[in-house]
Amino acid sequence: MITLRHHLLTIVAVFLALAAGIVLGGGPLSDVAPTVATSAAEDQEAEPVEDGAQADYTESFVSALGPATVGGRLAERSVALVTVPGADEQVVAALTDQVSAAGGTVSARYDLSEDVVDPSQKSLVDTLGSQLLTQQAEGDVAADASTYDRIGQLLGIAVATKEAEGLDVNGKARAIVDAVSGAGLMAEPGEVSQRSPLVLVVLGTDAADEGSDAILAGLARGLAAQAVGVVVAGATADGGEGQLGRLRADPASAGVATLDGVDTAAGRVATILTLQRSLTTPGGAFGASGADGPVPLG
To answer: In CA terms, which of 2, 54, 75, 139 is 20 to 30 Å from 13?
Structure first.
């Protein structure tokens, strides 16, 4: 039986690991070098400390702790995995493994194409969205929804549900997936049996322009309108002034949880805790530069 003491010890251990990763990897100690003695005749430059072993230890420590920390947190829950072009395949695989370690399942992987996030293809996205709204989602999606909010909601209808236990895929969901993939906006996901309460969006290449930011925000908001919870996750570099940082600055995206740092073991553990939180509480900014802390505790 897991006692409160065991739970608290686990949380403390996670914080120690996270703190070690942040301080050693990106804090003031990352630039510290050993003092090198110099002679009056020869002035030598200080050589930096090899901190690779420290970083490896931190990663190994959190990786070892991860299964015990996330175990059972997504029990009997499924997650729809949506990837943005350029998403790191190793990170995606590691996140999939973490969902399994948490007792959950990935219902399907939906890989968005370059066209859906390319501002120059807005006309295609708008036309398809209008057709699908009339044919499959009248009454489910607001007629005045913006182009990318609308396509996000349509995707949400196809891959997600407001039911915490998930729902079977129906004809409407299949028709939307077939139309979106047929238009080249998404790869064909293959056999899918369930729509999921949770959606995990894994970011890829940062286009770093206003048009792409608006597209990401619209897609995320649209998905959130149809799911219990949505988590948008990216690498450490995506925080701050990166694409996650810019998404966080968009007031309309307040209902979407964000997390930067999935390129680290600590960030992948935090992703599971953020998904769990999203089952009951939407929103929040977590991770290496999250305003709400490195990991949700509620």
So the answer is: 75
